[in-house]
Amino acid sequence: MSAIAVITARGGSKRIPGKNKKEFLGKPIICYSIEAALESGLFEEVMVSTDDEEIAEIAKKAGASVPFMRSAKTSDDYATTDDVLMEVLEEYEKMGRDFAYMACIYPTAPFVTAEKLKEAFRLLKENNASGVMPVVRFSFPPQRGMAVKNGRLAYCYPENAMKRSQDLEPMYHDCGQFYFYDAAKYRACRGDLEDGYVPFPVQETEVQDIDNLTDWKLAEMKYRMMKERAD
Predict the structure, then answer these.
(1) CA proximity to 182, closest of 137, 122, 125
(2) Taking Cα atoms as reference points, which of 39, 53, 41 lies closest to residue 9?
(3) Which one, of 3, 70, 5, lies nearest residue 35 by Cα?
(4) Which of 97, 31, 91 is nearest to 64 (CA)?
(5) How large is the average pLDDT for residues 21-39?
(6) Which residues contact 231 (CB under 8 A, 6 or more apart)?
(7) What radius of gyration, in Å, describes the C-alpha atoms of the chain?
(8) 86, exposed or middle or buried, with CB in 10 Å at 0-12, 13-18, 19+?
(9) What pLDDT does 231 receive?
(10) What does residue 43 show for φ and ψ, rounded to 5 degrees?
């Protein structure tokens, strides 16, 4: 059955200017997402949704398609990822093309690999799920977190203050790398999945939010480590 990979790459970035096309260890960071999608062999279409002509050219050279530019409505600071994905699916429908499955891949996600995409797709089908989300476990239990109150540290959940870490339920957060969807189920609820996501746990060493230049350097270090392990 047909599948599409949508790489969401808006041109504007305030914290790291040109973030989606900035060089990451020798090539534009968006190329890693494109290459992973192409190498997976899962997708009939690997496309980039962007409002930036330079990003569009980089994407095409890397092997992705850019059949249309993102609208002004889905290019501002208030547009959500769901807004972008719905626009993409609707535009393809106008061209007479529908897809059974959809992966949303972020453009600053060099840790996404073909193998991870294939495993996520397997989980999606095996569980007959609406979506799969890569997640990473918190290294320290959030249940024992503290906040500053009246200038002093105080436990947010005092009842957990003296509990052993191993006695607390493991908690996870979104890796911020990609999502895999049953496209029809996604469209029916416009991204608000009624049955939630199947988790796909990822190692902490292969996860890094990239919000500033320090994060960028950390991501490069972690990426080198990941490649060394693979080799």
Answers:
(1) 125
(2) 53
(3) 5
(4) 31
(5) 98
(6) none
(7) 19
(8) middle
(9) 80
(10) -110, 135
CA distance 19 to 90: 27
Own/partner pairs for 188-191, CB < 8 Å, 24+ apart?
189/130, 190/82, 190/86, 191/81, 191/82, 191/85, 191/86
What span, in angstroms and rounded, lies between the C-alpha atoms of 190 and 103?
A: 15
Amino acid identity of 187?
R
pTM over 0.85: yes
**Dihedral over Cα of 53, 59, 62, 67: its sign:** negative
Two structure tokens written together for 123: 């989980």
Consecutive H or E run containing 186: helix 183-189
Confidence at residue 77, expressed as pLDDT on a 0 to 100 scale: 85
Residue with tokens 């957060």: 173
What tokens does 65 get? 């398609």
Could you tell me where the DSSP H helices lie in 42-167?
Answer: 53-61, 81-94, 114-126
Whether 117 contacts 178, CB under 8 Å: yes
User: Could you tell me the two tokens for 60?
Assistant: 């095409």
Angle of the 53-61 helix axis to the 30-40 helix axis, nearest 10? 40
pLDDT at 1: 67
Residue labelled with tokens 């979506």: 131
Question: In which residue are the tokens 């060493």 written?
Answer: 205
Average pLDDT over residues 171-176: 97
Which residues are CB-contacts of 40 (< 8 A; sequence separation ≥ 6)? 114, 117, 118, 121
Closest CA to 37 of 99, 90, 110: 110
Per the listing, tokens 């991204």 go with 191
